[in-house]
Amino acid sequence: MPMTTRSRKIANAGKKTIEDLAIFGGVPTFPVGLHVNRPNVGDRAAFLSHFNEAWDRRWFTNDGPLVRELERQIAAFLHVKHCVATCNGTAALALVVRALNVTAEVILPSFTFVSTAHTLLGSGIKPVFCDIDRKSWNIDCDHCEQLVTERTTAIVGTHLWGRPCDIRRLEEIAKRKKIHLILDAAHAFGCSYEGQMIGRFGNAEVFSFHATKVFHTFEGGAVTTDDDDLAGRIKAMRNFGFTGFDKVEMLGTNAKMSEMCAAMGLANLQSIDHLIEQNRLGFRVYERDLEGTPGLFLRRREDEEKTNYQYICVDVEEKSVGLTRDEILKALHAERVLARRYFYPGTHAMEPYRSLYPEAGRKLPGTTEIINRTLLLPGGAEMSASEIHKICDLLRFIGANAAEIRAALAARNEDGLGD
Ligand code: T4K
Q1: Helix or strand or coil: residue 186?
Q2: Atom 29 of ligand 1 has which residue's CA nearest to it?
């Protein structure tokens, strides 16, 4: 099944003995590295045509016509009243935090990208790390509720790998405790919850349009909300607080999206259905190929909801595979399959959080367990079916020879990646 016109030669079709593995001196399966999240691209001509418009009109940033058009199209796609485009997702969250006057303490999962905690701490707010639910891998609502104190002003939930949080429960907690709910939808563009597009829940949702996301603008992001007043403030804050010529009405910053980024966004949005369909085809190949492989469980999607199939996330159960996630990762890297262990070791275990809150990990047993089992495999619309077959063949080969591989690694005194 050719899913892409791009061809990449497969250097070594099969492995017969463990000596054929690149980690033990064999020829790597791929001649060049296969990245997780190689950027999706829409139509090059559409991008250039939009960019040429900006070039001709000499209007490159500051709420330009391409940014406005992109915001309009995204709001329509997500069925939300307002989309305010920004220079990245981190800036988008910082604007929401400021516009909602979030202070003191905020609850967030540790199992997410470090940018969320950085944004909070950088705004003088204490990040309070919440555990994840072992089934969904999203914020554990019971634990979240226990963490609410009189100092808590908001919850930031992440729709990890595009799987929505338990939004109803989080909304209910936020309402009862009179705190804000902000949702990090960086992974969830094109996903739905109870039949409605992600983007209109909580006080606001925040997207990242980084190059590695299913929909991207090179670098970029957005705040989406149905709240007119909040959207107005965020729009002003994104542009230094200006509400008119010579009129600054609040503390602002520079978080604007450029016209070049918006041109890429318009081109990619035009292709979004195709890109998600390519992702879906790739996901199905992984699903079929990994079916029944002991100890390797592809994280599935709720079939009744829309999803973007962007992340190929595998849960590695060591006792069934006979190897740790890190041992497998090491073997894959040698084959030039550049899998990742996002978001290892968890935000709470990264600096400055590890030093500031050394006890935090004790309250995060689910996070600690899952973070050592997660393996993100190369995915995205650019992957071909034959590349995916090769990766899955490799994984099955590694699994079938786990005991021998472990013994050979031990003989070399290597047990995974080490840190
Ligand atoms: N919330 C969540 C849940 C997020 O995941 C993120 C960002 C944010 C908030 C914040 O949004 P932004 O402020 O970033 O808009 C990457 C991205 O930089 C980051 O945007 C993303 N999450 C995070 C999950 O991944 P790294 O350090 O892993 O990037 P890097 O350079 O290792 O690239 C990732 C993979 O993509 C590699 O396999 C290489 C490949 N790649 C990357 C780029 C940039 C390409 O093939 N081509 C490229 O152009 O952080």
Answers
A1: coil
A2: 212
Query: Above 50 in pLDDT, residue 8?
Result: no
Q: How far is the CA of 259 from the centre of ligand 1 (A)?
A: 21
pLDDT at res. 165: 97
Q: How many H helices and E strands in the chain? A: 15, 16
8 A C-beta contact, residue 106 and residue 94: no
* CB neighbour list of residue 326: distance below 8 Å, 6 or more residues apart: 341, 415, 416, 417
Angle at 39 between CA 367 and CA 330, to 5 degrees: 50
Alpha carbon of 245 to ligand 1 centroid (Å): 36
Query: 229-262: per-residue pLDDT in tens?
Result: 999 999 999 999 999 999 999 999 999 999 999 9
Give the number of the atom of ligand 1 that is nearest the alpha carbon of residue 184: 1
In tens, the pLDDT along 56-74 reads 999 999 999 999 999 999 9
Break the chain into its structural domains and give their ranges.
Answer: 5-31+272-414, 44-270
Q: For a pocket test of ligand 1, which of 212, 213, 340 has the largest count of ligand atoms closer than 8 A to its C-beta?
A: 212
Supply the pTM of this predicted model.
0.94
Superfamily for domain range 5-31+272-414: Aspartate Aminotransferase, domain 1 (3.90.1150.10)
- Report the pocket of ligand 1 as residue ranges, CB < 6 Å: 35-39, 88-90, 112-113, 115-116, 158, 184, 186-187, 208, 210-212, 221, 338, 342
117 within 8 A of 347, measured Cβ to Cβ: yes
Six-digit token string for 297: 């469980």
Residues 6 or more apart whose Cβ sits within 8 Å of residue 117? 108, 127, 129, 347, 353
Please give the span between the terminal C-alpha atoms of the chain, in angstroms, as a whole number. Answer: 39
Summarised one tens digit per residue, pLDDT across range 335-376 is: 999 999 999 999 999 999 999 999 999 999 999 999 999 999
Mutation test residue for ligand 1: of 8, 110, 113, the one with most atoms within 8 Å of CB = 113
CATH number, span 44-270 = 3.40.640.10
Q: How far is the CA of 392 from the centre of ligand 1 (A)?
A: 24
Q: Which atom of ligand 1 is nearest to the CA of 378?
A: 38
Q: How far is residue 54's CA from residue 340's CA, in Å, rounded to a whole number?
A: 37
Asked if residues 384 and 149 have their Cβ atoms less than 8 Å apart, the reply is no
Here the contacts of 43-46 (C-beta below 8 Å, separation 24 or greater) are 43/267, 43/270, 43/271, 44/267, 46/266, 46/267, 46/270
- Same CATH fold assignment for domains 5-31+272-414 and 44-270: no
